[in-house]
Amino acid sequence: MNEFALIETYFNWSGSNLVNLGIGDDCAIIDIDANYQLVTSVDTLIEGVHFPINTSASDIAYKSLAVNLSDLAAMGARAKYFTLALTLPDINKKWLSQFSASLKSLADEFDIVLVGGDTTKGALSITINVTGVVEKNKALLRSSAQVGDLIFVSNTIGDAAYAWKQLQDKKTPSEYVINQFNRPKPQLFLGQKLSGIANACIDISDGLEQDLIHILTRSSVGASINLNDIPLGNEVKVYIKKTNDWCLILAGGDDYELCFTVPVKNMDLLKALQNKNNVTVTQIGVINNSMALTKIGSFDKQCCSYQHF
Ligand SMILES: [Mg+2]
After folding, report:
1. How far apart are CA 210 and CA 274, in angstroms?
2. Is the separation of the CB atoms in 254 and 246 below 8 Å?
3. Per-residue pLDDT of the chain (309 residues; tens, 9 = 90+)
């Protein structure tokens, strides 16, 4: 099977009328509405680095797109289009059908269209570039946190890092935590709803501490967070009680939850959002003018968040 047949067989899904020319020409041509801005982001996942060797094709496809969608969520954007650069050691039809089916299923769930890509031979790696849209000047930024804002995170923190730790310790993670690791749910709905409520927002990919510090640095503010307020899943709670290993929570990463700051005057809007929709957000701290991050709790060591190099 050559490259063209591979694309035709596995990735030429039906497009949408947003795309004038999708797969099959030199470039995709995309119409955009007036009064909107494009937001775009790219992420590469490499076997053995971002997912363990022997991860299923469908989990790899899911995570590759989900982590990119998470970046759109952090901006409060709506997902629109993506491109895929796939490097494969060989052409395995079973692997490709599973990869393609899983990718399409997640793409359909979030209404994002595959508009182009590239395939090459080599060690397994997946690069996805996502593009979304946001109303002009309405994107959620890292740089807009204000002194007095309350700091929130969505859902629970640390489940994926706990699954990864168990894999490294040659233990079998529970279905729940391995699912949080392989199939993080992109918080696009929450991100869009936070536009107009939150001042600043980021998605937690490298670790809560480091990602929150990105907001603090870009906004020229400080913060204090209370470790005991960080929402944890049941298994992680038990693990922390036993080990006091808060580095797993603060620096484990791979959560793909949102960390955002809300001015007190918008708390009614946030409460209404929680009551009307099925979203879980928890306050973990407050933005202050200290220009540093203070962690209140029984553990205060500087954790090492994920380093890319
Ligand atoms: Mg991000």
Report:
1. 26
2. no
3. 777 788 778 888 765 444 555 566 777 777 788 899 999 999 999 998 888 888 999 999 999 999 999 999 999 999 999 999 999 999 999 999 999 999 999 999 999 999 888 899 999 999 999 999 999 999 999 999 999 999 999 999 999 999 999 999 999 999 999 999 999 999 999 999 999 999 999 999 999 999 999 999 999 999 999 999 999 999 999 999 999 999 999 999 999 999 999 999 999 999 999 999 989 999 999 999 999 999 998 775 666 565 555
Q: How far is the CA of 217 from the centre of ligand 1 (A)?
A: 15
Same domain? 160 vs 283: yes
Q: Name the domain count of the chain.
A: 2
State whether 223 and 96 are in the same domain: no
Give the Cβ contact number of residue 82 at 10 Å.
27
Residue with tokens 């590759």: 64
Query: What residues contact residue 100 under an 8 Å CB cut-off, 6+ apart?
Result: 10, 11, 61
Cα–Cα distance between 125 and 167 in angstroms, integer?
21
Contacts of 231 (CB under 8 A, 6+ apart): 153, 155, 156, 157, 280, 282, 284
What's the one-letter identity of residue 268? D
Compute, in angstroms, the gap from residue 1 CA to the centroid of ligand 1: 36
Residue 277 domain boundaries:
150-296
Distance 91 CA to ligand 1 centre (A): 31
Cα 90 to ligand 1 centre (Å): 31
Q: What is the 174 CA–ligand 1 centroid distance (Å)?
A: 26
- Work out whether strand 258-262 and strand 150-154 pair parallel, antiparallel, or are unpaired: antiparallel
CATH of the domain at 117: 3.30.1330.10
The answer to whether residues 107 and 160 belong to one domain is: no
The tokens describing 182, both together, are 């392989």
Q: pTM here?
A: 0.92
What's the token pair of residue 218?
């870009």
Residues 154 and 129 in one domain: no
Residues 157 and 61 placed together within one structural domain of the fold = no
